[in-house]
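Reminder to self: tokens first, then the designed residues, so the page reads top to bottom the way the pipeline ran.
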């Protein structure tokens, strides 16, 4: 079957209907999306499907045919990081970084949506993304910078 990932069309093997995460990592070698819990509870595997944060670990690849999939590798443009990535780095958001990909993809969906967002909307929007290092205050500060003070996002 064919899937569109980061604006490129790929032909993938769907024998046994693997998860989107399996296809991304094993067939397309896009390893930025991480396996966390395997149950869509931690957010480490989130990618954007038609602009919505989606847990790739439980999403059958056959369900994304004809949809636009965007992974962490697809955020860079013209050799520059996405504004979310830049601000997360500026704000020193991550410690171990394992949740980074899923956090960033969810944040991208938030900042590419309506603005400005209140603190509770940011918290609600990031619900389902777990940071085991508990850097939530830094993540929230970065999101506030992106959605309330920064018009470049």
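Designed residues (153 positions):
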């Amino acid at each position: 079957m064919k899937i569109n990932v980061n604006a490129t069309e790929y032909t993938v093997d769907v024998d046994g209907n693997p998860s989107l995460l399996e296809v991304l990592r094993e067939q397309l070698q896009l390893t930025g999306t991480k396996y966390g819990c395997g149950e869509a509870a931690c957010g480490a595997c989130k990618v954007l499907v038609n602009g919505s944060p989606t847990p790739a670990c439980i999403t059958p690849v056959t369900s994304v045919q004809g949809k636009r999939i965007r992974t962490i590798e697809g955020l860079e443009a013209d050799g520059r990081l996405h504004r979310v990535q830049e601000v997360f780095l500026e704000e020193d958001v991550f410690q171990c970084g394992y949740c980074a990909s899923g956090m960033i993809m969810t944040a991208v969906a938030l900042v590419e949506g309506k603005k400005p967002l209140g603190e509770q909307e940011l918290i609600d929007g990031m619900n389902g993304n777990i940071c085991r290092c508990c850097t939530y205050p830094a993540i929230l500060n970065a999101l506030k910078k992106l959605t309330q003070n920064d018009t470049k996002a």
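The mean pLDDT is 93.
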